[in-house]
Specification:
Layout lengths: L8 E6 L3 E7 L9 E8 L6 H12 L7 E6 L7 E3 L6 E3 H7 L4 E6 H8 L8 E4 L13 E8 L3 E9 L2 E6 L12 H14 L10 H15 L8 H10 L4 H24 L5 E3 L2 H5 L1 H6 L2 H6 L5 H5 L3 E4 L4 H11 L2
Amino acid sequence: MSRAKDEVALVADIGGTHARFGLALSARAGRPQLVAVRRYFAAEFASVTEAAAHYLQDVGPGREPTRGVFAVASAVTGDVIKITNNPWTFSIRAVGRDLGLSALRVVNDFSALSRTLPLLDPDELWSIGPGRGRAPSLNGNATYAVLGPGTGLGVGCLAIRDGHAVTIDSEGGHAGFAPGSAYELKILEILSGQFGRTSAERLISGAGLMNVYKAVCAVEKISPEAGLPEEITEQARTRPGAVAARAVGLFCEMLGSFAGDAALMFGAWDGVFLAGGVAQKVLPWLETGGFRQRFEAKGRHQPLMRSVPTQVVVCPHPELLGAAYLDACH
């Protein structure tokens, strides 16, 4: 479907904590252009419609969108969407109608993020471990895993087949957590007492870092000092011997183990990409800690895993960029 030259689309990245909106300019060759990006706390709005309407009022008249693509931290299985880590539930048809859009498409956030990867410049990717990674090419055949800790733990896959990109959605962050050491088993026992079944997301996410820190404090019989994830990373940075540093180190090791499992499950021998704000915040520990060792430590497949590049996406707003790309391809 062709689009008018002056047509703009409303794009959104709806997560558990934040709702990000932007306007995507008309389709053009290559990378879409985003303008007027805004971020809001989801808790400040009763619904996604209210948040989107506030955004459109915020940016003002003159660039009214005619269609939209929303990337959501949720499984997308029909018209009704329930965001996993915030209270919003909405009908795609109703939101599109209420916002005056001719069409509204909703996709999983890691599906949008996966479609962003071929658009990235080299300076928007940070390689972890041996080798120099690069953005996926749309030529030939390749398979990539993409995952990232944020409010939750997103997991997806990008498969290139004969020059065509196919994304695979998943809720892989809700797979059960597998401890990789006796110490991690103690952590799991503590969290199992709190949550019952304990998914990877309970440990490998923003809230997960808090859970890990509190569990480490319990194991070490130390009273917690930090009350927020950012306080944990700040203490880890300024006090390398503190319990916060041990918690951040463990977090990165567990993320490495899970990322390696994702590569095995998807057959992502061409690369694994880490996205999300948490990955960027712990980047120094990903580089110097046990992330890569745990990523590669897959028994008989360790030689294969050594050849799989791991990269952190440092592009701003990659989910919005992916949503804009999906709109341009509509």
